[in-house]
Amino acid sequence: MEVLMEALVRGQNLKMYFRVSGGTLKAVDGVSLHIDEGETYGLVGESGCGKSTLWRMLAGLYKPTEGIVTYGESFKGRPQMVFQDPYSSLNPRMTVGEIIAEPLRYAGMDKARRRDRVTELLSLVGLKSDHINRYPHEFSGGQRQRIGIARALAASPKFIVCDEPISALDVSIQAQVINMLDDLQGKFGLTYLFVSHDLSMVRHISHRVGVMYLGRIMEEADVDDLYRETLHPYTKALFSAAPIPDPDIAASMKRVILQGDVPTPINTPPECPFRSRCPNAEEICAATRPELREVAPGHRCACHFVG
Ligand SMILES: Nc1ncnc2c1ncn2[C@@H]1O[C@H](COP(=O)(O)OP(=O)(O)OP(=O)(O)O)[C@@H](O)[C@H]1O
Ligand SMILES: [Mg+2]
């Protein structure tokens, strides 16, 4: 019998299908994963592979077409989100204090306590208490992202989804925001789902990483295992297309160039979704779907030729 460890968030066989004019768009097509309390789960994959759709199901914003999401006993509050664009996600007509206090107002906290809490949150994210009456346009991109993070933290959530939280920021600011997220995780035992195109940032911040392709997880492992012992041909291609600063890894990495474009997720056949671009594809790849199997402790891979 399979013993399920207590996870903070768990998705089982999650599918999200959309009806579109050309047929059925399978944005997420049978994903099972769990995120443990206090960990950062990094989610990577090309644009359109279903990352945002997956977390929307995990956060309860989408009702899955199929599959279930469950939360562990220590889960409390609502999942909170930190988005890519700190410019459009903050209401320009509200003051910083009003923005950060909004979740507290919904929760019924009185005005005096809200003010105290906002002051505390501003200091947690490295802003000054006299910023409380200013408007978002008076701040830099990095400061606006700090405001967004303060708002996400306001109601003391357990689970925070960061969807490309730094990609709109100057490189010089990115590390500051990442380090702050790291500190906050340690202080409050936060659990993050961290979505990013930036593979070296994902490596830096994540404990475990899942690699998505056309609505499925192709490979998942502890971060060091994934980056040092990359198994799936798609992950290899994805990693070799991006510069990885670690020279040991760079030297051991053969460059794999992906042929062709990502196929559309409309009417995807049930077999291996990567086979049209895979350098190793054989008949079996067009005949049966490779399940995501554990091929080494904690390392799962969905390829007929691995493990
Ligand atoms: N509400 C919707 N109706 C129809 N199709 C959708 C809907 N939401 C997402 N899709 C499609 O589902 C697929 C996955 O989209 P999703 O936004 O989850 O990808 P993503 O990995 O987050 O991409 P990106 O990195 O660009 O943010 C895409 O083909 C997208 O066009
Ligand atoms: Mg997205």
Put the structure in a nutshell:
With 307 residues, the protein is α/β, with parallel strands linked by helices. Helix content is 32%, strand content 22%. Magnesium ion binds at residues 51-52, 163.
Give a topology summary.
Layout (H helix, E strand, L loop, with lengths): L8 E12 L2 E13 L4 E5 L6 H8 L7 E6 L8 E3 L13 H11 L4 H14 L16 H13 L5 E5 L7 H18 L2 E5 L3 H7 L2 E6 L2 E7 H6 L4 H9 L5 H6 L30 H5 L5 E4 L2 E3 L6
Parallel strand pairs: 3-7, 3-8, 5-6, 6-7
Antiparallel strand pairs: 1-2, 1-4, 8-9, 9-11, 10-11
Helix pairs in contact: 2-3, 2-4, 3-4, 4-5
This protein binds adenosine-5'-triphosphate (ATP) and magnesium ion (MG).
CATH topology of the domain at 9-79 and 157-275 and 293-301: Rossmann fold
- What's the number of helices? 10
Helix content: 25-40%
Tell me about the largest β-sheet. 8 strands, mixed
Report strand order across the widest sheet: 5-6-7-3-8-9-11-10
End-to-end distance, in Å? 22 Å
The ligands found in this model are: adenosine-5'-triphosphate, magnesium ion
SSE order, one letter for each helix or strand: EEEHEEHHHEHEHEEHHHHEE
Strand content: 15-25%
Care to count the β-strands?
11
CATH class of the domain at 9-79 and 157-275 and 293-301: Alpha Beta
CATH architecture descriptor of the domain at 9-79 and 157-275 and 293-301: 3-Layer(aba) Sandwich
For the record, what is the CATH homologous superfamily label of the domain at 9-79 and 157-275 and 293-301? P-loop containing nucleotide triphosphate hydrolases
Q: What general outline do the C-alpha atoms trace?
A: elongated
Low-confidence stretches: none
- The mean pLDDT is 91
